[in-house]
Amino acid sequence: MATEQPMTQTTDSARVEAFSDGVFAIAITLLVLDIKVPVADGARELWHALGAEWPAYCAYLVSFLVIGVMWVNHHTVFSYIARVDRTLVFLNLLLLLVVAALPFPTALLAENLRRPAAAHVAAAVYGATMVAHAVTFVLFWLYVTRTGHCFDERVDPVAARATRARFGLGLLVYPVTVAVAFLSAPLALALHGVLALYYAFNQTPIPTREQPAPDPD
Amino acid sequence: MATEQPMTQTTDSARVEAFSDGVFAIAITLLVLDIKVPVADGARELWHALGAEWPAYCAYLVSFLVIGVMWVNHHTVFSYIARVDRTLVFLNLLLLLVVAALPFPTALLAENLRRPAAAHVAAAVYGATMVAHAVTFVLFWLYVTRTGHCFDERVDPVAARATRARFGLGLLVYPVTVAVAFLSAPLALALHGVLALYYAFNQTPIPTREQPAPDPD
Amino acid sequence: MATEQPMTQTTDSARVEAFSDGVFAIAITLLVLDIKVPVADGARELWHALGAEWPAYCAYLVSFLVIGVMWVNHHTVFSYIARVDRTLVFLNLLLLLVVAALPFPTALLAENLRRPAAAHVAAAVYGATMVAHAVTFVLFWLYVTRTGHCFDERVDPVAARATRARFGLGLLVYPVTVAVAFLSAPLALALHGVLALYYAFNQTPIPTREQPAPDPD
Amino acid sequence: MATEQPMTQTTDSARVEAFSDGVFAIAITLLVLDIKVPVADGARELWHALGAEWPAYCAYLVSFLVIGVMWVNHHTVFSYIARVDRTLVFLNLLLLLVVAALPFPTALLAENLRRPAAAHVAAAVYGATMVAHAVTFVLFWLYVTRTGHCFDERVDPVAARATRARFGLGLLVYPVTVAVAFLSAPLALALHGVLALYYAFNQTPIPTREQPAPDPD
Lengths: 217, 217, 217, 217
What we know:
homotetramer; 10 helices; two-stranded antiparallel ribbon; elongated
């Protein structure tokens, strides 16, 4: 085997999933380090200091939900993928690069949410990170549906392409959160929470051959 | 397959377990970062500085035990679950949200335990986090026993419902630790250690068909 | 099944191993956070600042080796264990408690190694942590060899008991490192590195039935 | 079995891979902690503070890519390894020691890249870490190809030795990055990114028996 392996030569996807699960699990668990631990002498002062950290709690809740739902979606997509080639491993790495970066905009928002002018900037950076995530997810999915050879045998590759439009929805929605950031940073954060819940409960089904798709959405 | 997947459609539970194991393992290992590293010039000063950190060691021990036992219980429950639906994945995410948050009240208690007035507040927040954990665990278990379709075939779904009362015990016990926090913060911390040991050695058995349950507790 | 599960009822050991692997991998990777990142304007100042951190590099190297070899030994022991009961899960949790704590004495030694008087204390605390590790490992192994029901079928439980003495060797050796700490802290650190290498290349074999053990050591 | 296990006695490689995956996943996800979270009152100030952190973003991107590609290569090599002996476990531990250390030179570069004189030193340390990685990878591969008994049956051990030269390429290339560091630190960082991309898309194929290798490169 003297020639280079072609970029489309595939290997089993199990270890890529395990590595990705690790990155998701670590990123989601590191979020708590962004919540500063207050120290106070009196009970009232400590209650007050804890109360003043509401932006950190909100950012924790929303980002935990966001990474959790990203993981669920990643997991769902990989349940239809039986093997990976080197391009897909690389596109998956790009996707993980954004996931692993999320504790940074989360901390940025937590630290600046109570400073009206700066909060807009922090929320815009958070939204831009989500735009980057949507871009990497769409690139990943475009490649999988274009080549088809990574899919599990159950999947109908032609019908699967019809899901691209819905997978690309994030490319329209997340730029809106950047615009909303300049109106109200807390509203933008709440919007990210609502979008994560939407994606949690409205995943795009991937057409399979066992379940014929007479009316692909 | 043009219709949305119903919320109750199930998939294999293995990757949810692996992801949960990752979050438990990371949260339990991050606890050590809460122990401040003292620096001193003299031997006596360093012994003294190390001794002054007893609240951090106690908080580490108790929280390690608490997360460890949470993991054992999570593991035991999942040994009876063969598949998950989207609602269960979401309820599991809620449960992990509280587990991953535990390093925060642990550090809060470690930092404030030697300040009498503030210690009550820190211990109450610790207790409240455990109440939140009990609530997410009960929601998880109510959903599993109500629907029944996630159980492994060995499990007797009707008899399994009889375990709800014991699983709900934490909803009565953990609010008591919040009350105890206002009497004595160290006592509240010790109580959390004792409760973790109780749960370690008194897990509720889940009735299975192979082992008939004539007298469900 | 109305009765409590007896403490000796066993389940498969795979998930306990996966959780333990996670804790070992995280603890070993967190060690790098103990190395302070120096900032300087000039090249010479930065070289100097980097050079001044030699205790942190030594502590990193030794503790990486120590946790790595602990993992190898844990892995070897579990390769002979087919199932776990609740007591063993709990003893394993105790063992992991010490493993996860190791970044603390490592940082303590790194920060204090250049302060002659304080260094003795830091090295003694490091040695004491290793004593604690040896104790938890011996308790684990005593329980496994005493009960026998957790072993894989290949293992000869009677002959396995004969390995206790060698497994208990750490109980004699690690207290010596505490004594050495008061002579010379760098020597004590070096001794921990040498002991890890010894354990890396001199693991106690566990007698199996396929390979009869006429002369158990 | 009274004799010591010979150093070449092999066991299954699966748990070594899982542990290594954990270390790679944690090291890659810890990188984000090196990006400082700026706080500002005004929007302009926060944009400015965010902009001033470009060295941290560049270092994050390059190191994420570097560790990601290291993981891909490690994963590829292990796909040809069916079992490990104690020496290989130890050589793998050495390799992971360097991987886990990478967040340190990454942070060093991020903190010093804008200080012209110090940046050369930081980039040289980064390059030296990559030299150390190349050395551990070559030692690992020399041992695997020299002994041959760890390979999967598919692999042609004689032909596999012919890949040593290409695996050793890093020993020539990474010292060059150290030299480049003294010309321009940003250029050296960019070179590390380019090299990671080169390794991502030009992995050395390992000759297998099923695919005869008439013209080993």
